[in-house]
Design a protein that fits this description.
CATH superfamily of the domain at 2-191 and 227-251 and 298-314: NAD(P)-binding Rossmann-like Domain
Distance between the termini: 22 Å
CATH topology of the domain at 2-191 and 227-251 and 298-314: Rossmann fold
Radius of gyration: 20 Å
Order of helices and strands: EHEEHEHHHEHEEHEEHEEHEHHH
Oligomer: single chain
Strand order of the largest sheet: 3-2-1-4-5-6-10
């Protein structure tokens, strides 16, 4: 197969590209605008591979996207490109509307034109996989409830509202025009190559450098954590085997409070890289003013993808976190230029739902 991946230079997108080319020997066409969170260094393991190609292109340019589709002739599209940081959506919502809503509209229209031109098996097997977030569902109380695929949408931030809008567009293009789509909504991602404004790399690197470790409110907000490599495998499974018109929730079944995550990172680093003065890194934890409209809890019921497609997360959070911290310790040549160039080390996020 040949798959066109939008946002393939981002955190989740690059994991998808590496999995497709490196593990599955599938051809990949990576289309990415290369915004602040994109990093072509995340694709070095496959950059020279004959199955991999890259286009620097804005997804909002429908004609350019259509030209790439007609030239490359992919069997499927995996649409991951999006603005994804909640705090940035509060500071400046416009780019989220432009990229996540209008960009998805442009992708759908380009895909529809391309799909109509296909014939025979190519037309019948084509898929448009739209990758979204559990944040479209709003939040959950502190109980045992879970997000289902049928949970009503109730987005809380400009980011989640823009993603909810794009989800609705994708379903409408399937219902009205017959475009063969599948959708997925994921929980918080973590793992190697994550941009260091997100919670786990931010805390890891700040703690390593002896900086304050900012935690919103009391740190009692709960997130379900999913390793990015498990997510990449789930996404490819959905894109290739998911039922047309259906959506699939993808989660790690690893709920933790934000404070518990920060404390676990501190404890891991204290064991691996003790501070010279012998103090514990938990002393660096600093509680900061909570973000507006901060959702209390996210938790995914991923029983549908488990039952229908046979996917399950392969890592516990403890295993994945230890591996992730070790990766950042061993790959400072990847993250140091980011911290030095365009990032202060203070902006706080949680996990990635998009590239």
């Amino acid at each position: 197969m040949k798959i066109l991946v939008t946002g393939g230079a981002g955190f989740i997108g690059s994991a998808v590209c590496r999995h497709l080319v490196g593990d599955l020997a599938m051809a990949v066409v990576n289309v990415d605008k290369l915004t602040y969170a994109a990093n072509l260094d995340s694709l070095k393991p496959i950059a020279g591979h004959p199955l991999y190609s890259f286009y620097k292109q804005d997804i909002c340019d429908r004609e350019a996207i259509l030209g790439i589709l007609q030239s490359e002739k992919p069997d499927a599209i995996m649409h991951l490109a999006a603005e994804s940081h909640v705090d940035r959506s509060i500071d400046g919502p416009a780019i989220f509307i432009e990229t996540n809503v209008m960009g998805t509209y442009a992708m759908l229209e380009a895909a529809r034109t391309y799909w109509i031109e296909l014939e025979g098996t190519a037309r019948n097997s084509f898929r448009f996989h739209h990758v979204s977030t559990d944040e479209v569902f709003g939040d959950l109380p502190f109980d045992d409830s879970l997000f289902l695929e049928t949970t009503p949408y109730a987005p809380s931030s400009p980011y989640s509202a823009s993603k909810a809008s794009s989800d609705h567009l994708v379903r409408a293009w399937n219902h009205t025009f017959g475009l063969p789509v599948v959708l997925s909504n994921c929980s918080n991602n973590y793992g190697p190559y994550q941009f260091p404004e997100k919670l786990i790399p931010l805390v890891t690197l700040n703690a390593l450098e002896g900086r304050p470790l900012p935690v919103y409110g009391k740190g009692d907000n709960v997130r379900d954590w999913l390793h990015v490599e498990d997510h990449a495998k789930a996404l490819v499974t959905i894109a290739t085997r998911g039922r047309i018109g259906e959506s699939y929730n993808v989660g790690g079944r690893c709920e933790r409070t934000n404070l518990a995550v920060v404390e676990a990172i501190c404890d891991h680093l204290d064991k691996q890289v003790p501070r010279e003065d012998g103090t514990q890194r938990r002393s660096l934890i600093t509680f900061v003013t909570d973000r507006p409209g901060h959702d209390r809890r996210y938790a995914i019921d991923c029983s549908k993808i488990e039952a229908e497609l046979g996917w399950t997360p392969s890592r516990t959070f403890e295993e994945g976190l230890a591996d992730t911290i070790s990766w950042y310790l061993a790959n400072d040549e990847w993250w140091r230029p980011i911290r030095a160039k365009n990032y202060s080390g203070q902006r706080l996020g949680t996990g990635s739902k998009k590239p």
